[in-house]
Amino acid sequence: MRGWKAALGAAVAGALVGIGGVFSPVAHAEDPELTPVQRFAACVNGGGQGNVLMLMDMSGSLRDTDPQAGRVKAASVTVNRLAESLAETQGIKVDMAVAGFSTGYERTLDWTPLTPESTGKINSDIESYASKNNGVDTDYWSAMDGVRKEFSARTKDQANSCNMLLWFSDGEFSLNVRKSDSDVQRWGGVKPWAPDNRLRSKSAVQEALTSGQNDLCRPGGLADQVRSLDIITVGLGLAVDAPPESFNLMKGISTGQGTACGEQTTPTPGEFLMATDVDDLIFTFITALEEGKGGENPVCVDSECPEGTRTFVLDGSIGAVNATAKAPIDGTRIYLKTRTGESLELTQGKGEKDLGGSTLTWEWVTPRVLTFDLTRKSPDNWAGPWGIVFVADQKSDELAKSSITLKGDISPILANRADLAPRIGEAPVELKLGTVDRNGERIDPTTLSNETTMDVKLFSGGETTALASGLKKADIEKPLELNLDDLKPGVAELVLTLDVTTESWQEGGETIPGTKLEPRHASIPLNILPPVNFPSIPDRISFGSTEKPDPVTVQVPLDGEGCAWLAGETKFTGYPEGLDKAKLFSPASGKDSCASGNLELTLDPGGLGNGSFTGTTTVMLAAKDSTAEPVAVDLAFDLSQTRPVSQPVLWTTLIGVILLGVAIPVGILYLVKFLTSKIPGNAVLAGSVSGPVDDHGAFTDNGVPLGVANLTVAHLTNNRREVTVAGKTLKAKMGMALTEPGHVEVETPGPSAGGRTSLQSVKGNAKLPLAVQGNWMVALDPQRPMSGPVEVTVFTAPGSPGFKDLLEDVRANIRTSVAKLREGLPPDQAGPSSDPWGGGGGGSAPAADPWATPKAPASDPWGSSPTVPQQQPPQQQMPQQPLPPQNPPANDPWGNPPGDDPPAAPARGNR
């Protein structure tokens, strides 16, 4: 497979030399001549932020298809090799996250810079997937929805992101029958795309699968939404017992082929690779992200032979070799034939050998799969032909496989990138190209092989312009002229492609042809400025994420003089199911309402669903001098929308019971309420911070000082009625009124409230919906409720969906919530004397008596009195003792009905 191949190998550093200026968010060029992984490679080579998400199947079938966890071994080797390649270069930025899927999506490792120092942390998380093979579903829809949310949040504030999904599964899209409501809740709740389907029968499961596939593959569906976020998808399928066609949907999601899936299929959005056994999986997994060329050879029998040897030629432009080989049968011996003609057996296990001018290391990942690395230390015994030889004790009809990556010490660059400011209407600009080594040092073109060539293309406004083709080494550093007359304003991409073939080798009158390296690609953003006196805008904006159907508004910054308006030509490339009537509008809708400084845009989703609104629109730019003709520019946008977790089981059960007849005892209804009042989901993550909050400000005004890494997790297993996380005990309650939904209470020593935006309490304790994930609570200090620090606790689900919006809700509403909690409470009493054994300074208040009878405040706007300790002078000055926990206040400032204990279960009769 051609691959990434150039991107993350040793030579990528050069593409980063000369990066300067600030670039707008980029909607990347789509060169149809590059493979999907090469497009990702070119983006990283051009200085973009690399984001690689590894998504692992956790379904129960893995216990049979991959009992030795070969997927984990392969993923770990991939991480190590990639990190080593990145360490050899300067300035490359690639982060990796790890997630799993079965009944739903769960991120297990947050985004982590991929370096040799971080591989231990990353691989530790990957290794945990060896035992994660108990999932009941292989839910493609939830997997892709999690990917959509992950990258939408990840790239929101990144100027130039390069995104790749590496997705492994051993089975087709499948769901299991749920025999009861408890199964529904235990296995992640109802499916978001089929909220009314309880999956109680095989026919119901098939109906849900059909609906899920339709939503994945419809025009504008989930597959299109992922592609519209510029995510390259590499799918890896393990087909041990399953027929290849069972992976057609996975292939369709990854590439658009197989099962026809989505409309955004040109250029090809990804790649799909299939393995038929674990050894094949490991070989495929490792080589999927290598730049090497694959090859197949028959095996030699008993001794070395030419047909069983794969030859490659090295010269001074090659710094290292990475290779992966797969033997066709057990007991196959693999040899490395060196430049001097010596054959070294790469014995089972691990090994290392100093070859004089180079170092050889190898490891057998399985008894049939070998990886080895050859690293140059000096020119000695390096240049010339080398080979891999396969020898077995018996003949094999199956061929041996190998992938050899020659890590060339060369990359193409735009040398004057930092000095360029191309502007439409001005003179052409000169592009100065060149080549550099892994350290960013210039390479003299005369030292390159005669077969080295460079191609240069420009992508702008959907048009492709070939600026140069087949430049010989003598012409590479000659300036190229870029005419700006026919270009559109915005971020264009300059794509450089360097083709290198190593020098041929002459020996004994025989010529061994040089080895052609994988092309080196670099995709470099060029900010094409509008004519003078016109403003410029970003290429892409994000409306963020929302759980509401309400319109979302953003301010698009205009850089420079002049103004802009929305031209009204908007195309949605992705949208949640049923929301194809979404609209994008602006107060600035014409030349008469042209906006300066910022262009206000509002996206009205027209309803609530699960998915991303993605698309492009046209914005008109007008010059400060109104006589100049307006200029049209393209603007890409996205909005991530999620329907909040709900508890539909209760209502459908109640409706079903009512339909059976009004004679059913009310006690059964309450029992149903009690049985369904449980915390949904697989886990709850929570974290707390505290600080001052008053009428003048809050410690959260500049943002809540809490990150995902600070959260603790509590897994929801059998007991979903009570869970403790981050020091808070959450208890599920069913609600006393017949139609009152269940909720969660959090007992606190001081007054507290919970929820989102408009918080609630019951008997002075925080009240949260049963789906606590995505909500927060605030608690007052029990000793100084009016002036003490305020504690904020946030709750989220695995993967932290909507975490930024949750923190923003805290920031926006905490002062109002705290003021409401404090309303009617008496002022805090003065603290104890500084000298607990003697008289304090004049005027100091007496110490509090923690055993005194509480005194009710003079006024209570909710009609009940909070319990607050009354201050009394001590009979004898003693050291101040800590106050014991106080009873929660009786008042409920949110007006909820008192009392919420579950009723006694109805009598079961004789057993």
Molecular structure report:
It contains 13 helices and 46 strands. The protein is an alpha+beta fold and 911 residues long. It has a 10-stranded antiparallel β-sheet with strand order 38-35-46-45-42-43-44-41-40-39. The protein starts with 35 loop residues before the first helix and ends in an 89-residue tail after the last helix. The N terminus and C terminus are likely disordered.
How are the elements arranged and paired?
Layout: H1 36-45, E1 49-57, H2 62-65, H3 70-87, E2 94-101, E3 105-113, H4 119-127, H5 140-154, E4 161-169, H6 181-186, H7 202-217, H8 222-228, E5 231-238, H9 248-255, E6 270-275, H10 278-288, E7 293-297, E8 300-301, E9 309-314, E10 318-326, E11 333-337, E12 343-345, E13 350-354, E14 358-364, E15 369-376, E16 384-392, E17 400-408, E18 411-414, E19 429-431, E20 433-436, E21 453-460, E22 463-472, E23 480-482, E24 490-499, E25 505-507, E26 510-512, E27 520-528, E28 540-546, E29 552-557, E30 563-574, E31 583-585, E32 598-604, E33 611-622, E34 631-641, H11 648-660, H12 666-676, E35 683-691, E36 693-694, E37 697-698, E38 712-715, E39 722-725, E40 728-733, E41 743-746, E42 752-756, E43 758-762, E44 765-769, E45 775-779, E46 790-796, H13 803-822
Parallel strand pairs: 1-2, 1-4, 4-5, 5-6, 8-16, 28-34
Antiparallel strand pairs: 2-3, 7-17, 9-16, 10-15, 10-17, 11-12, 11-16, 13-14, 14-15, 18-20, 19-23, 21-22, 21-24, 24-27, 25-26, 29-32, 30-33, 31-32, 33-34, 35-38, 35-46, 36-37, 39-40, 40-41, 41-44, 42-43, 42-45, 43-44, 45-46
Helix pairs in contact: 3-4, 3-10, 5-8, 11-12
